[in-house]
Amino acid sequence: SLKSVIAGCGSYLPEKIITNDDLSRIVDTTDEWIRERTGIRERRVAADGQYTSDLAVEAARRALDDAGLKPADIDLVIVATTTPDLTFPATAAIVQAKLGVEQGAAFDIQAVCTGFVYALATGDRFVASGLHKRALIIGAETFSRILDWSDRATCVLFGDGAGAFVLEGVEESETDGRGIMSAYLRSDGRLVDLLYVDGGVSSTQTAGHVRMQGNKVFREAVTRISEAMETVAARAGVAPTDIDWFVPHQANERIIQGVVKKLDLRPDQVISTIAGQGNTSAASIPLAYRQGVEDGRIKRGDLVMIEAMGGGLTWGAALLRA
Ligand code: ACO
Prior knowledge:
Elements: E1 2-12, E2 16-19, H1 20-24, H2 31-38, E3 42-45, H3 52-67, E4 76-80, H4 91-99, E5 105-109, H5 115-128, E6 134-141, H6 152-155, E7 161-171, E8 179-187, E9 195-197, E10 210-212, H7 214-235, E11 245-248, H8 253-262, H9 274-277, H10 284-294, E12 303-310, E13 314-321
Parallel strand pairs: 4-5, 4-6, 11-12
Antiparallel strand pairs: 1-7, 2-3, 6-7, 8-13, 9-10, 12-13
This protein binds acetyl coenzyme *A.
């Protein structure tokens, strides 16, 4: 039987930096408040005319290079995004064309900040079943475009960016145990009001802005994320403390540390990028994962846990061997 192995990864951040001090000139906030409550120091913002697909394509090219593969080797493109270029077609179709992938299928997944976990779990099923050979799993966002820049409670939290994995179907006997081991996805639509965008095609015909009851989301986070991690670990027959690296969605440093404490992990097992990037929604996990690979922390064969929670509410976790 086949297993989906991570053949490569890549990420991309737009050049423009917005610091906390920059924000303190737009809204009533301070560098100190933002750092203490969230761990964020600065975030990147896409340039005018630079779309989610552009960030996605850059991350995907780097992932393909890392895997030593070409666009012609890819037969599935999944983009997790909440900030698509257009209402349709899927950003994945635009990315497919810009990359020069001419075969296979392309579609988007919308699970907000949990998007990458959903996309990876979905791509894994397509690849491990043999339906598709090699998939690009991309998380890409231009959250700056749906922020209300007069709302200090939300505009300080988010940033733009993209990250990508290449998943390849490999005979299990040849994987050395590498690949996606298990995934666990959840949602509870009764909690829509905690975090949503107040616009859309069918309702207002506008793109809308992010609305969030931050402290209520915060209170839900640690418990739900920890449950997902315990479940996904149990499915793979390991304990959360067996992992080498914890690559969480980067929403708030305090949430991450809460999970670390609850599950008895060590702070030095966490790959954290929040200080320089803020919350990049579906892009944050592959951005952090790439950081860990690049600086030599995540090595071939390491046991890695990813998790996220976001609008919906949606949440989930996945366990993999790098
Ligand atoms: N600067 C200064 N003061 C602020 C700011 C700011 N940027 N933002 C809010 N405040 C004020 C509030 O107005 C409030 O003032 P008040 O007491 O006078 O009313 C005070 O700070 C405390 O506000 P809280 O919202 O209770 O602050 P909290 O400690 O909860 O921190 C935060 C807010 C950082 C948003 C936190 O709740 C959080 O991180 N929540 C989770 C976010 C998250 O994980 N989202 C999910 C992923 S995102 C996605 O899926 C799209």
